[in-house]
Design brief:
By secondary structure, the protein is mostly helical. It is built from seven helices and no strands. Helix 1 (2-17) packs parallel to helix 3 and helix 4 packs across helix 5 (90-101). The longest helix has 38 residues, at 115-152. The protein is elongated.
Length: 154
């Protein structure tokens, strides 16, 4: 549960400082978990992944490419110079991916300073607010129905 709480906190923090929504980040984290990465590995990888994706790449595609690379297939990363050794462990492959992604620093900071970046952050904040208000309404209605049922049940 502590690891999940840290991942949720990371989603919120990164959604406030990048153009990626909390929902997009949650999806990326879930996809990375499906590749058997630990919460700690994801916490370290996600900011690097966002830097790479912020250079005009699709976030979901980047996550898939990372998963493939961790599994041993350099794929699209081969064009950026990623070389994976046959027989390498997932941890060794992950380390090489981290080294590759570390070269992409600064893209998120540049993106959030643009007008379109600021607007995207604003849109994400509104979407997160709407989602939380919606969740509150659903909880209220569910509790209200339970009370009404209790009052009118024989």
């Amino acid at each position: 549960e502590e690891a999940l709480a840290r991942l949720n906190e990371q989603q919120q923090q990164l959604s406030e400082t990048s153009t990626f929504s909390a929902g997009d980040l949650a999806t990326a984290q879930a996809q990375l978990l499906a590749f058997d990465l630990t919460a700690k590995e994801i916490e370290g990888l996600l900011p690097l992944l966002l830097e790479y994706a912020a250079q005009g790449r699709d976030l979901n595609q980047v996550v898939s490419q990372i998963g493939s690379a961790v599994e041993g297939s350099a794929g699209a990363f081969a064009k950026q110079g990623l070389e994976l050794d046959k027989g390498a462990t997932k941890a060794e492959n992950l380390q090489k991916v981290v080294e590759l992604l570390s070269r992409s620093q600064g893209a998120v900071a540049e993106e959030v300073e643009t007008t379109s970046g600021k607007f995207k952050i604003f849109q994400n904040a509104i979407a997160d607010f709407t989602e939380s208000v919606g969740a509150g309404i659903v909880t209220f209605v569910r509790d209200y129905i339970a009370i009404v049922k209790d009052v009118f049940s024989p």
